[in-house]
Amino acid sequence: MNSTQQNLFKLGAAYYPDYISNEKTLTRRVDSGRLEWLTNKERLTEDFKRMVKQGIHTIRLGEFSWAKVEPAPGVWKPEVFKDALDLAHKHNIEVIFCTPTATPPKWLIDAHPDILPVTRTGQKIPFGSRRHYDFHHPEYQKQNKRITELFAKSFGNHPAVKSWQTDNEFGCHNSVFLFTQNAKTAFHKWLEQRYNGEIEALNENWFTCFWSQHYRSFKEIDLPLASWADQNPHLELDFRRFSNEALCAFQRDQIEIIRKHSPNRPVTHNLMTLFTDLCPWMASKDLDYSGFDHYQMESEPHPVTSAWQFALMRSTKQRHFLILEQQPLQVNWQPTNRRFSFDWLFLWGLQSAFQGASGMLYFSWQRMPGGCEQYHDGVVPHDVRIEKSQQEKLIEAKNHTFTKLKNEFGFTDALPLAARDVLCIHDSESLWSHEITSQSVTYTTRKQIDHITQFCLQSGLGLWFAPSLEAEKDRLDAYKLIVLPGHAFELTAAERHLLKNFRSKGGRVLSLPRTGYKTRNNKLSPLPAVFYSETDFYLDDYGALLESETETCDLTDTAAGGHIEGHLWSEKIQVLNKSWTTEATFSNKSIYAGSPAILKLKEDGQHGAHVHLATCPMPQKEAWSALRKILDLPARAISSASELQLQLLESGNRKFLAGVHFGQHPSSISLPAQQKIGSSVLMSLDKNLQAQVELITQSDSQSLSIPGRSAILVELLT
Ligand code: GAL
What we know:
Blueprint: H1 3-8, E1 10-14, E2 25-28, E3 35-38, H2 40-54, E4 58-61, H3 66-69, H4 82-90, E5 94-98, H5 106-111, H6 138-155, E6 161-165, H7 181-194, H8 199-205, H9 233-261, E7 267-268, E8 270-271, H10 280-285, E9 291-294, H11 303-317, E10 321-326, H12 342-354, E11 357-362, H13 390-409, E12 417-418, E13 422-425, H14 428-436, H15 445-459, E14 463-466, E15 481-484, H16 493-504, E16 508-511, E17 537-544, E18 551-555, E19 563-575, E20 580-586, E21 596-601, E22 609-613, E23 615-617, H17 621-631, E24 638-639, E25 644-651, E26 654-661, E27 667-670, E28 676-685, E29 691-696, E30 703-706, E31 710-717
Parallel strand pairs: 1-4, 1-11, 4-5, 5-6, 6-7, 8-9, 9-10, 10-11, 13-14, 13-15, 15-16, 16-22
Antiparallel strand pairs: 2-3, 12-25, 17-19, 18-19, 18-20, 19-23, 20-21, 21-22, 24-27, 25-26, 26-31, 27-30, 28-29, 28-31
């Protein structure tokens, strides 16, 4: 392994020395190729030799190892990891060590059975799987600190340990919302503080007059268990806030202990964004850098969702993030576990790097012989006779590709980050508010974010996220466009001011339907959709569209002419302030026929504008180009295919256009007329899983063509 490879994009895997038998295991010797029954230590040595041969730079250890390291109360066996750590150090492989709190051992559960969680339906989760703990339980909070300290002291000063991961995937398996007695007691305390001990303030906020829910004291309040009809939505939103705060406090306890006993090792967590229960901003606040587990729930991979999830991770800490777990194609938890082709893995590697990942660790290095994940893919196959697996070939191909990129463009330690073109507000409370009273199983904020992401990627625009306008207020001027993707809540006076100021300096604002409907306690606002003034327009009516239902919106000639399709949600807006011009109207077939579908505020003499969409545009090329025109927002580059994702990266004065093409067919990239193109690197994986990396020097043309299933990095000359 050479150190130039190590830095640009780290490749690695989760590794489990704690799962390797103390009996002899049949292993293939790396040097001789002989099959032999090896002792535990010999087997580990061969594993590390193989990792070095593969070009693995980082491994993650220990997240499920509690019972191995502490098999009985007071029995401490850190030597389980000794050989692995020493070998990692010897082989120059960095270790991310994990706290083991995701799997409390049987002896602890037997001593305190009420540590086990209870679900929304009142079911107790048994021992025997994972995440079987209640983070509200005072005893588990004590154990959390105790075991973290023992781990940090035992492993945290080993020279191989460079970083820490807390627990494992907070929130996975629906584990953020717990319905235990300890959760209830803590919730009462939290509510008492939030409502200053005034139960009537809570009654008012929660609209408990509805369905006779009035409370006389905080102690009367139940957790929002599954019920005949929906629970009180204000209670549910407060419960989500409370649960997130409590989980973050549980993590904070670990972080403080790690920092004390294992200094100078950054701490991360493997966040997930497949679900919204855990707020990524809160969960990453105390971390040094964000870690991410990249899995695809859909039966077909969805590259747009991956793109914004990566961008969200980069945005949480405003720096590169690390993919702590990458789905190695086949998993074990889908209804039918699909096999994807290997070029997905190759393209996900490049896509994540272009979106700010500093590396990617596979889950996992081994394929487990036993346990419930025995069919899950890994880097090394079950068949010990195989010298080089398909995954290993792919790792080689990735290392080769990133080395070429590094050498060609002279990057030092990571790829540049995305340009700050577009800022999208991603507020977990807003997402929850829509989920709680959803009004449509089809509508989600995530779909809106998919659309915005697609708009950016079709136009080469760099996309960032923030939890609120306030959070990003010192950097707003850096962006060209701010997006409110169905942001549920009324804009505050401060937010309106920020938007107005942003527009006055030339910025564009884009709001999508379902923006500004609610108050922060999840009630519908008496003054919905007020962006600047209460007399701009009235929201006459609104509602969800069926999955199969679409709206046709006729664009005015000044906009772009023609039509675009809308779906998911529509609004009927009555315009009072004539500074808002209509750029498209709902067609004759719509319930809101003739009513504005796209509105634009552009005040005299101002360069900036606010565009409001009264329906969600379907992801179509026509919609993106109309939107660019209405917003008067030039593209950085234009992609000819929806599967071809483009984004501008910036580093000092240098600019790069990064493209990843997930489609099968050749497509093209058009650049603005004056744009000069420097060197480009075109990358793909061939049938033998070898990287094809082609350097193209300077081109005079304004258009580049790109084959299907490939990626490109182009230096743009200024
Ligand atoms: C992740 C988890 C891993 C493993 C993997 C399987 O969610 O962190 O431990 O279970 O899923 O796909």
